């Protein structure tokens, strides 16, 4: 039955940035679809744990550094025995005019949004290959994977790069049955956009450009996140799917 292909029964997923926003919504969707979920967060994911129940396990780790990668993989294997899905959702943004932009704001964003994503994915892919049963990687990209934006140069660099690297990894690992894809959220009402939504002028400019006429929510991302984690997407490789209320088409 086609709907069975969308299920995640007994799959084990790692979702980074699980304490809030889009990551929290993805954890909830995966548990509802039958998966066991390891949420990685630098602050405790207590609210997510309460929403998800016993099939959720929280690993506390600061993804600024690569040092935490063995802990993330080790705790997942210890708790649930295998890994089937990795969602690279944790991400930060620093907003400032490019003319004033600091090295610190460049490096912190590139570390969390790109460098750790690459090396965590590499470590998980080694586990997928060891298990010999394929796997799914979903990288959370952005509208700024396609557009330049303003006042967020390191974020644009990281999100443009992640779309490219998604294709590289998909090309190299399709032969192992590993699907690497991305989701590019549009403008979503989370902590990431709090400052933007508080800026009346920017907020109304953005809203006026979204054909759907509203900011997105974590729930809006759940369908794409489940699809790309499930066997319904087994022949989808290297694609970044926009979930944006029509923003990119405008
Ligand atoms: P959010 O509410 O700010 O969530 C970001 C998540 O990443 C939080 O859980 C955050 O933890 C975590 N994180 C940040 N730095 C981390 C670190 N060093 N180690 C571990 N976890 C860390 O924003 P969101 O909107 O849900 O963002 C999720 C993803 O979607 C990000 O990659 C973002 O760039 C992307 N995105 C968002 C939008 C949007 O409109 N909201 C649009 C396009 C793309 P803390 O709570 O501890 O900071």
Please outline what is shown here:
This protein has 250 residues and is of the alpha/beta class.
Average of per-residue pLDDT values: 97
Question: What characterizes the major β-sheet?
Answer: 7 strands, parallel
Helical run tally: 8
Based on CA inertia axes, which overall geometry fits? globular
Number of strands: 7
* Sheet with most strands: strand arrangement: 3-2-1-4-5-6-7
Q: Specify Rg, calculated over alpha carbons.
A: 17 Å
Q: Ranges with pLDDT <50 over ≥5 residues?
A: none
Instruction: Output the helix-strand order.
Output: EHEHEHEHEHEHHHE
Structural class: alpha/beta
Proportion of strand residues: 15-25%
Terminal CA distance reads 36 Å
Bound molecules: NADP nicotinamide-adenine-dinucleotide phosphate
**Helix content class:** 40-55%
């Amino acid at each position: 039955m086609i709907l069975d292909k969308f299920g995640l029964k007994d799959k084990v997923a790692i979702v980074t940035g699980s304490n809030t926003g889009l990551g929290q919504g993805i954890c909830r969707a995966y548990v509802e679809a039958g998966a066991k979920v390891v949420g990685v967060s630098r602050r405790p994911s207590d609210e997510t744990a309460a929403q998800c129940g016993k099939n959720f396990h929280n690993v506390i780790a600061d993804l600024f550094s690569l040092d935490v990668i063995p802990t993330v993989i080790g705790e997942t294997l210890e708790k649930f025995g295998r890994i089937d899905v990795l969602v690279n959702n944790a991400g930060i943004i620093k907003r400032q005019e490019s003319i004033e932009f600091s090295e610190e704001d460049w490096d912190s964003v590139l570390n969390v949004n790109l460098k750790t994503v690459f090396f965590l994915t590499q470590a998980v892919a080694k586990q997928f290959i060891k298990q010999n049963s394929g796997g799914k990687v979903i990288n959370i990209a952005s509208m700024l994977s396609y557009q330049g934006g303003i006042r967020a140069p390191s974020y644009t660099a990281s999100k443009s790069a992640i779309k490219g690297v998604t294709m590289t990894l998909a090309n190299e690992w399709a032969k192992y049955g590993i699907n690497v894809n991305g989701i590019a959220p549009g403008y979503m009402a989370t902590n990431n956009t709090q400052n933007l939504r508080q800026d009346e002028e920017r907020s109304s400019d953005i809203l006026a450009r979204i054909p759907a006429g509203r900011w997105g929510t974590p729930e809006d991302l759940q369908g794409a996140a489940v699809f790309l984690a499930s066997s319904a997407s087994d022949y989808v490789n290297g694609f970044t799917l926009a979930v944006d209320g029509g923003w990119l088409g405008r």
